[in-house]
Amino acid sequence: MSGLIKSSIARKVAMALSGLFLVFFLLQHFTINFTSIFSADIFNELSHFMGTNPVVQFVLQPVLIFGVIFHFVMGFVLELKNNKARAVKYAKYNGGANASWMSRNMIYSGLVVLAFLGLHFYDFWVPEMVHKYIEFAPEDPTRYYPELLHKFESPVRTGLYVLSFVFLTLHLWHGFASSFQSVGFNNKYSAAASKFAKAFSIVIPLGFIVVAIALHFNQH
Ligand code: HEM
Questions:
Q1: Whole-number Å distance between alpha carbons of 203 and 22
Q2: Which residue ranges does UniProt annotate as crossing the membrane (predicted)?
Q3: Nearest CA to 125 among 50, 55, 219?
Q4: Domain count, the chain
Q5: How far is the CA of 12 from the centre of ligand 1 (A)?
Q6: Is there a smaller number of Cβ atoms within 10 Å at the N or the C end of the chain?
Q7: Which atom from ligand 1 is nearest to the alpha carbon of 211?
Q8: Does residue 8 lie in a domain region?
């Protein structure tokens, strides 16, 4: 059993499963954020529910944070082990002939997404935790939309978000599509699944870009 956990196949499966879980999170996160561009009320209502529901707060949120940390720690481990296993470094690598540019650079696109998450937690998650669990400020169900709008006032921050979403596409493009194979999904639907993953990798980050830009130009 411990041999299995330590095996590189098991690590790839763990990476794929945690990645797939984060893809689900991205989809729900995008859906909620997207409502902000056409209805402040709906966004407030959904955010208030997510921010105060005990199952979301004390079960789903810790699972999500664990999922994020697990995925990036495992990502580093995989990269280190792969580098070690590859006695002759990229010098012998024949570029795109062996593996696509994006698959070889998952660690870099991942690092940009990680840096984005640092900024993003500083922007939203930290103030939220302070508001709720340090200041114990009274809950105002209409506060979410103005807080969100305020964050996208700055063109620099909006630009950083947009740039990060481009890297998110690069990361998902290879990560999501190859995750099916890593979990052993290998049948007549594999090609369709891969196409779906690639479409998702473009559509969802593009949607996030639309949200960021719309909020930036919707200041009032
Ligand atoms: C325009 C794009 C985005 C907007 C407007 C946005 C907005 C928000 C907001 C308002 C929160 C709420 C924090 C809270 O109440 O706890 C949040 C949390 C979070 N966001 Fe985003 N987000 C965006 C893109 C992303 C992307 C692309 C990712 C992942 C790569 C991401 C990952 C997270 C995570 C992990 C949390 C913490 C969730 C929690 O545990 O509460 N966000 N975001």
A1: 16
A2: 55-80, 101-122, 158-176, 196-217
A3: 50
A4: 1
A5: 26
A6: C
A7: 1
A8: yes
